[in-house]
Amino acid sequence: MVIKSAELETVCGITSSLPRNELPEIAFAGRSNVGKSSLLNGLLNRKSLARTSATPGKTQTINYYKINNELYFVDLPGYGYAKVSQSTREKWGKMIEKYLKKSPTLKAVFLLTDIRHEPGEHDKQMYEWIVANGFRPVIIATKSDKISKGQIKQQTSKILKTLKCPQGTVILPFSALNKAGRDEIWAEIGKILGDDNRDKEITEENTNGPEKKDKRENGETE
Predict the structure, then answer these.
(1) Which residue, 34, 145, 185, 206, could crosslink 30 as a Cys pair with Cβ 3.0–4.6 Å?
(2) In the beta sheet, which residues pair with residue 140?
(3) 144: Cα within 13 Å, side-chain hemisphere
(4) 1 Cβ partners below 8 Å, 6+ apart?
C-alpha cells in the first residue's frame, strides 16, 4: 500500500470511551519490549509516528492511527515488562478486553513476538486471550535481522508450537532495521480487509486478561 497519509487520531486511556469508527481496524498487540512501535513506523514509512522508548510500557493507551482515510491501525498497550502496579496492569487488561469485545469494525489482531526467543508466559496468555475473544491472531515475529536466514524457519516453527497455534496460522518474520517482511504484512492486511478474521464459532469468554503475573524476562525495549 502506498501511504499517502497517516496520523494519530484518537488516544484512549483507562477511563476513556472507545470511538465508534466506521473504517476497518487492524489491532497490534505485544509485550512492551517486542518492537511494536518500530513495526508500526516501518509499515507506515514514518520515523516517529509511533514513539519508541527505552522504557518498557511506554504505550499505556489505545492509540488509533488513521491510514489513507481507509483504515485504522490500533496500537494496544504493551504488556510484560512495564513498571506499573498490578492494579494498573489489570485495568489495562480490562481496557483491551473491552476493545476486543466492543469494536464493531475490528477485523484482525496481529500478535508480535520476538523471533529470537520462545514466547513467554505473557505471550501465551495474550494469545489464548485473543482467541477466547473471538479472533485468530496473525503472528509477527519481530527482529528477524538478529538471527541468520537459516534460523528463521526453525524459530517461527518453535513460536507456533509454543503458542499451540492451529495448522494454517499465519506467521510473518519482520525486521524494523531492513524492513524485511513489510510487503508480506501489507499483503496479509489486504487479504484480511476482504474477509472478517473473527472466528464466529468461538464463544468462550475469558476475563482474566494478560496481566495476571508480574514475572519479568530479559529483552529489549520497543
Answers:
(1) 34
(2) 112, 172
(3) 25
(4) 67, 68, 186, 189, 190
* pLDDT top residue among 102 and 171: 171
Residue with cell 537459516: 150
Q: Distance between CA 39 and CA 174 in Å, rounded?
A: 8
Q: Helices then strands (H, E): number in the chain? A: 5, 7
Query: Cell numbers at residue 11, please?
Result: 488516544
Q: Output the nine-digit C-alpha cell for 35.
A: 518492537
Q: What is the CATH number of domain 24-192?
A: 3.40.50.300
Among 6-20, 26-40, 68-82, 104-118, where is mean pLDDT lowest? Answer: 68-82
- Give the Cα separation of 59 and 76 in Å (integer): 7
Percentage of residues of the chain with pLDDT beyond 90: 61
Q: Using CA atoms, how far apart are residues 159 and 153, in angstroms rounded to an integer? A: 10
* pLDDT confidence of residue 218: 42
Whole-model pTM? Answer: 0.82
The domain locations on the chain are 24-192
DSSP notation for 144-201:
GGGS-HHHHHHHHHHHHHHHTPPTT--EEE--TTT-TTHHHHHHHHHHHTTS--B-TT
